[in-house]
Specification:
Elements lengths: L12 H14 L21 E6 L5 H16 L3 E6 L4 H14 L3 E4 L8 H9 L4 E4 L11 E5 L1 H15 L18 E5 L7 H19 L3 E2 L7 H4 L6 H15 L8 E3 L3 H13 L11 E2 L6 H8 L6 E3 L2 H16 L21 E4 L2 E3 L4 H6 L6 H6 L4
Parallel strand pairs: 1-2, 1-3, 3-4, 4-5, 5-11, 6-7, 6-8, 8-9
Antiparallel strand pairs: 10-12
Helix pairs in contact: 1-2, 2-11, 3-4, 5-6, 8-9
Length: about 400
């Protein structure tokens, strides 16, 4: 059972969202999972909205899909929620089917932000607004709106947490007067190159770390610093684990040690940590390196609570889902949704009006205030590392 997540527009929405996630998680609504609209709302106040999510292999995307579905259903829309198993042709087919079924709006978290031009042209021909969800759809004029977090700042936060863990900054991000001089050996990981966000994350992180590279305080011993060298296709945990294993074998076989790893996503972090643990880190006299992350996945939150992973970035997907629903309602009412950024997100054809949300750094000492007190995870879930 996937974790409980609710869409919050008011206290009355809490139970609705939790029930919707239970239905989505247990009903097998992904590719090949039967009728995607089974269990959806009656749509009395609105028509059909298609929601295309990339995969069910990440608890984050299960939660996003459920939260968007719950919010739309509460607003009176029928929802066609589909997960594409990280397969581009499957997602293309799913969106084609949504258009054929008569969807009046589409909310799309793309697997590959460059692979949906045909589907978006078909949507535009039918007058269907397209809201790009968290991952920017590129190379198309037929993207109407983008809801996401401040992705450059997420990268800044990831790098900041790495520096905090190494003792170079304090928890508020200020330089420490008596900070160790280093040098610290660090290794860099980036996300999937076909995800536009991966570039923003990496740019924010590298810009933050660059002064420490220039000063010699941080050293990338492998020499792998370009995103083309550090990327992780499809954000796969096993790919990150294999690369970390290769780095340890090729670069750290001379007695040198890894002090920190910049990881842009919790799934990658767990693969990296597994590779490090298999090489003896975290046991005996060899401490675990500082490892960052993103998405506050419950397995990684437990690792942070246990002192294994150092940090993650909390992007409250309840708020992201809410903005997707608000944008959808605006379009279907014949209005334009409110954007708070009209300059940053150029998809190669146009600057897409966007609504950006803020994120938070999670350390062990603020798990309670950020994640438990807000209802995102329960104390029992944090202790077990398993969603209820």
């Amino acid at each position: 059972m996937a974790r409980k997540l609710w869409y919050t527009r008011g206290l009355a929405a809490v139970a609705t969202g939790a029930m919707a996630l239970a239905l989505a998680a247990c009903g097998g609504s992904g590719a090949g999972g039967g009728d995607a609209t089974e269990g959806a709302g009656d749509g009395e106040a609105g028509g059909l909205v298609g929601v295309a999510m990339p995969t069910e292999t990440s608890e984050r995307w299960i939660a996003d899909g459920a939260a968007v579905q719950a919010g739309l259903e509460e607003a009176g829309y029928e929802v066609d929620l589909q997960f594409a198993a990280d397969d581009i042709p499957t997602q293309q087919q799913q969106i084609d089917q949504m258009i054929t079924k008569g969807a009046e709006a589409l909310i799309v978290a793309a697997i590959d932000g460059t692979a949906l031009a045909g589907q978006l042209e078909a949507a535009a021909a039918e007058g269907i607004p397209v809201i790009s969800y968290d991952r920017l759809i590129r190379d198309s004029e037929n993207v109407d709106f983008y809801v996401t977090f401040d992705n450059y700042n997420v990268g800044v936060q990831q790098a900041t947490s790495l520096l905090v863990g190494l003792g170079l900054l304090d928890a508020e991000g200020n330089e420490v007067a008596d900070a160790p001089a280093g040098p610290f050996n660090v290794e860099l990981f980036a996300g999937s190159l076909d995800d536009n966000n991966a570039h923003f994350f990496y740019d924010g992180a590298i810009d933050t770390l660059q002064p420490y590279f220039d000063a010699g305080t941080l050293v990338v011993k492998s020499g792998q610093t370009d995103i083309e060298q550090t990327n992780t296709l499809r954000w796969l945990q096993e790919t990150a684990q294999k690369r970390m294993e290769d780095l340890l074998t090729s670069t750290y076989n001379d007695g040198s040690v890894v002090a920190g790893v910049l990881s842009p996503y919790d799934g990658l972090s767990r693969g990296i940590i597994t590779a490090l643990q298999n090489s003896g880190y975290g046991s005996g006299d060899q401490p675990m390196p500082i490892v960052t992350g993103q998405d506050a996945e419950i397995a990684s939150v437990k690792l942070i609570n246990d002192g294994v992973q150092f940090s993650t970035i909390f992007k409250d997907t309840r708020k992201l889902a809410e903005q997707a629903v608000v944008a959808t309602e605006a379009y279907l009412a014949g209005e334009e949704p409110e954007a708070n950024d009209t300059e940053t997100y150029d998809n190669g054809v146009k600057v897409v009006p966007s609504f950006l949300l803020e994120s938070d750094i999670v350390y062990k000492d603020n798990i309670q205030s950020l994640l438990v007190d807000s209802g995102y995870w329960t104390a029992d879930e944090v202790a077990s590392g398993v969603s209820e």
